[in-house]
Amino acid sequence: MTDTTTLPAQAVVGRRVKFAYYRDQTTFLPGIITSITDDPASLRVRLDGKRNNLACRPDYEGIRYLDEVTPVPALPMGAFTPTLQDFGGPAYAGVPVCQLDDEDIVILTGNPDAARAALVAYCKAQDIDPEYAEDPLETAWALFEWQPEDAESDWHVRFDAEGFDGAVQIHYLPAA
Fold first, then answer.
1. Is 123 exposed, middle or buried (0-12, 13-18, 19+ CB in 10 A)?
2. Strand order through the sheet with 29-36
3. Distance between CA 159 and CA 44 in Å, rounded?
4. Residue 150's closest CA among 29, 38, 43, 51?
5. How many Å apart are CA 116 and CA 175, to the nearest integer?
């Protein structure tokens, strides 16, 4: 644990803060101190609406301590139905589309015509060869699950989820 004599009195777990990134010291975003560690960048700050912590020094110029101290809210865990924001938006032909790290393309609709239109629009927007959009789409029941805070990714998807609570029907194009 950090030697608390070197921390500002305001640096406590649960303190609401405003945080600005180095690149933009004029835009302050709301967040909360989630923990204090023993390294020089000892504060862990979670910005509102995010799942990951930022590490910063307690005396960092881009942090403003607010008066409010509250319990640190728990992050949602378990199954969820993704939104456009979870996929990193925008919609393509009105449908959320996401390309996973393994390059599979997930299309959040059970409608095959809407899935094909979204895939064509996604490929065009991403400068992917249009012939790739002609490959057959697979239909699956997928279960999207939140991962713990500071995991490598915010969520994980299982494609073998028919019959699971929270599973949604999707279309996807496996990576070639």
1. buried
2. 53-56, 43-47, 29-36, 15-19, 63-69
3. 34
4. 51
5. 16
Residue type, 9: A
Each residue of 11-40: pLDDT tens digit?
999 999 999 999 998 999 999 999 999 888
Distance CA 118, CA 139 (A): 14
Tokens of 45: 């700050």
> How far is it between the farthest Cα atoms of the chain?
63
Note the pLDDT tens digit of each residue in 123-159.
Answer: 999 998 878 878 889 999 999 999 988 788 889 999 8
Q: How far is 43 from 75, CA to CA, in rounded Å?
A: 18
